Amino acid sequence: MLLERIYDEDLAQASYFVGCQAKGEAIVIDPRRDLGPYLDLAARNGMRIVAVTETHIHADYLSGTRELAAATGATAYVSAEGGDDWQYGFEAERLHHGDAIRLGNIIVEARHTPGHTPEHLSFLVTDGAFADKPGYYFTGDFVFVGDLGRPDLLDEAAGGVNTRFAGARQLFESLRRDFLTLPDYVQVFPAHGAGSACGRALGAIAATTVGYERENAWWAPFLRDGDEAGFVAALLDGQPDAHAYFARMKRQNKQGPAVLGEPAKLVEFDNVTLARRLAADEVIFVDTRHNTQVHLGTVARSLNVPGVGKAASYGAWVYDPEREDRPLVLLAGDESQAREYRDHLVRVGIDNIIGYTTSLTGLPLVVPTVISQDDLDTTARSMLLDVRNRTEFAAGHLPGAEQLSGGRVLWHLDQLPTAGTIIAYCQSGVRVSVAASALRRAGYDVAELEGSYLGWVSHQDQKEVLSVG
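The chain above was modelled as a monomer; its predicted structure follows.
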């Protein structure tokens, strides 16, 4: 059996390529929409992708199940569990608990493991060429390394009302009924790693085992004691903010994401043409530089998505394709880098990228307002905005600040003042530059605090030293 993990550092998301080498057939679990890694793996190993499936209706990225099935002719499989409200809206084979997909010597068994979502499936895999019992468990957002999938996302991002409590109880039962009945040696491969907002404290290690989690996971004592109430309380406590774009991902993944097909060639814009189109408000410019460079001058009303490494994460904070139909033009070093940005952006359903430019020369530039730590107390403001996560805010924040995370701010403009200057900060200055660019494009007067929260802490320490001296 061939098993390969394809990991997206941007969204902390893992998909898996599992193949039977004897028959030359493979299945992909939880694919993303840019298909290069899966197609390359299949070609390199002389395999055909004959099946593609996903563990659940994802919230943090747009599924590539339909895309990969269309590109390869593979059969798509999705969950039939969870009740009428959780049925997929596109053509695919439906899997119930206990159904199996066979690839030569390999058996992929669907296990209904609700809790994170009602329809959630995990996949128990037996390598028949080596053993007659399952040895691998692809748990999606059910069990992570050292953590569990959060059951509150339906409330936080999909319009649910107090579904978190039923979800938490379902997770307790899924662990008791399914996960903990497996032998200790079964290897566990989750769909996310450290940095994902789909859990609270995910481990950075790629995989674990049933036995290791049984002995060491934070939730294990609650299961041993049969303490469901304690488990529910501990699971729901301290979950991070859910990004607002998750609601769009849920809807699109349930309905069926649009199939992109072969990507179009990106246009390299000359800046005379680009300046004209920007003046006519026909396109949106994406400044991909670090905030320190952006602060020296950037295109007016541009969006800041700093670096390709987090392009999907930050792009989904600042651009909502359900509200905005203007296409994007990227600042990129060359066409190859622009394509890489596009690969990241389509993972969150930002498909309308038409081209790039390699410089800012000749474009209309503005200098974003940045407030120094010395001037913070004397600068008039209508709001002091903390765009960090609520758990960061709870650990310490500037006096008088109000919290609204960067991944939610564009969807909660009703919480912002309609006039006056908003002074905003994050931890170090990167996230606030992203959020501030979106707010400026929406018409708000936003000033960024130089050095953000860490700069403020350092400034307070310096003032204390001076006062003592």
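The mean pLDDT is 95.
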